[in-house]
Design goal:
The chain is mostly beta strands. The chain contains four helices and 40 strands. It has an eleven-stranded parallel beta sheet with strand order 1-2-5-8-13-17-20-23-26-29-32. It starts with a helix and ends with a strand.
């Protein structure tokens, strides 16, 4: 065969898997998510409509994308409206058959999973990974999962020798004895936890790294958990970068990095560790390297390195965000990329944005009002609705059912420019979808919320 013809045929056949990849709709094509996964081919997308799906699903080694409508719309309200509920039977989502890169779980709520903790059969509650699975877990809410048993860990996520990327997720209200939010262990490597918020988890330790390698936690907040925030044990090359560990009921960092055969390394760069109830514990002889970070109570430590601070970071009223007088503003490593406002990097997960600064890419003044997504959503029975006003105006905030009937009048008065919030309580309403409307002058905005009892 002519050489050019061979090259053309190779090109055609190499493109076939992508050409014929399809989108499978749940529940339009299949009522159950697992049935859709089992019917999907490599490269397919399983797109899930809003609703509660009582299932425990397994990717069975397939490279595919499982997502809510967030994938196609970028509307974060779909995350809380599209729920996989494990019914306290087992792990809600499992990756345990060498799922390759390109496998993804995007924009879903993962709740009510039950993991087991009887060694060696240890499983996570919300999401379980093993056998070198490498999924992307992105923009998911992972909450109200737990583990039980003599060695229970990983209430939210447990990865055994996997290599997931976990980004832009909220991981909260999970329960385990150790590693209540996330456990990384047993040979896991190249794990990335990026831009996540980890809070209100219940257990002795919140994030546990054990017998692993090359774990990076970046732009992440670990706050208000019932135990210590981050423990690294026999995990080589742990990196905590531009993150905030704040107000946990225990240590901020516990690092036991020395064993009989190896000295492991833990790096902390541009981070804040403050207001945790116990002092940080760093084992003697550890390779603990800290630069350009605020670490409470660490001024006399041998590892207190270049650019470090031991002082109050002066958070704003919203916590973890920085107030105008914070000493960590522009105090980060000048060799790092600048913050989005063009200044030297700040310490911690959130940079300080000067409200008086002119952003050339945006209008000079707030020209219209903005209605935020309620939180939590789904809710039972109360939820908070937030909104922004550019000027002083007469405001109405109302709630309607799916028939368009008004079921709540929350605000009906003049309010000043700025940020506002109101709490809606649906204790006397049935479960279902409701709409809330903000009216300002002759304009209005409407968003959807879900009451689940």
């Amino acid at each position: 065969m002519h050489r050019l013809a061979i090259i053309i045929l190779i090109g055609i056949f190499s493109f076939i898997p992508y050409t014929f990849a399809k989108t499978i709709q749940v529940p339009a094509d299949y009522r159950a998510i697992q049935t859709a996964i089992d019917s999907a081919a490599i490269g397919d997308t399983v797109l899930v409509a809003p609703g509660v799906y009582n299932e425990n699903i397994d990717f069975h080694g397939k490279r595919l994308v499982l997502a809510s409508y967030f994938l196609t719309t970028s509307d974060t309200s779909y995350i809380s409206q599209t729920i996989i509920d494990g019914n306290a039977d087992s792990s809600v989502v499992s990756f345990q058959n060498k799922e390759p890169e390109g496998t993804a779980l995007i924009g879903l709520s993962i709740r009510n999973g039950l993991g087991t903790g009887d060694w060696p059969n240890v499983r996570g509650g919300g999401i379980h990974l093993e056998y070198n699975a490498k999924p992307l877990i992105r923009y998911c809410y992972i909450y109200n999962n737990e583990t039980t048993g003599s060695s229970n860990r990983g209430g939210g996520i447990n990865t055994k020798n996997g290599a997931p990327t976990i980004s832009n997720c909220k991981i909260y209200n999970n329960k385990s004895f150790i590693g209540s939010a996330i456990t990384v262990g047993n040979g896991a490597a190249e794990v990335l936890i990026d831009s996540c918020e980890i809070f209100n988890n219940i257990g002795f330790q919140t994030v546990l790294l054990a017998y692993s390698e090359n774990v990076t936690i970046r732009r992440t907040v670990i706050r208000h958990n019932s135990g210590g925030a981050l423990r690294s044990y026999s995990t080589n090359n742990t990196r905590l970068i531009q993150s905030t560990i704040f107000a946990n009921q225990g240590f901020g960092i516990e690092y036991s990095g020395v064993s009989a055969t190896v000295r492991d390394t833990f790096y902390v760069f541009n981070s804040i560790v403050f207001a945790n109830t116990d002092v940080n514990y760093i084992s003697e002889g550890s390779l603990f390297i800290v630069r350009y970070s605020l670490i409470e109570g660490a001024a006399d430590s041998v590892w207190f390195g270049e650019g470090c601070l031991d002082t109050d970071p002066l958070f704003s009223d919203s916590l973890t965000f920085l107030s105008v007088n914070s000493p960590v503003i522009n105090a980060g490593d000048p060799a790092l990329a600048a913050d989005p406002d063009g200044t030297v990097a700040d310490m911690g997960a959130y940079y300080y944005k000067d409200p008086t600064m002119i952003d050339e890419n945006k209008p000079k003044f707030l020209s219209r009002f903005a209605l935020g997504q309620n939180y939590p959503n789904p809710f039972n029975p109360a939820t908070k609705i937030t909104y922004e006003l550019p000027v002083t105006k007469y405001v109405e905030v109302s709630v309607f059912n799916v028939l368009g009937q008004k079921v709540g009048a929350l605000v009906n008065k003049e309010q000043k420019a700025g940020s506002h919030s109101v709490v809606f309580n649906g204790h006397d309403l049935a479960s279902g979808v409701y709409f809330y409307q903000l009216q300002v002058g002759g304009q209005s905005q409407i968003r959807k919320m879900l009451l689940v009892k």
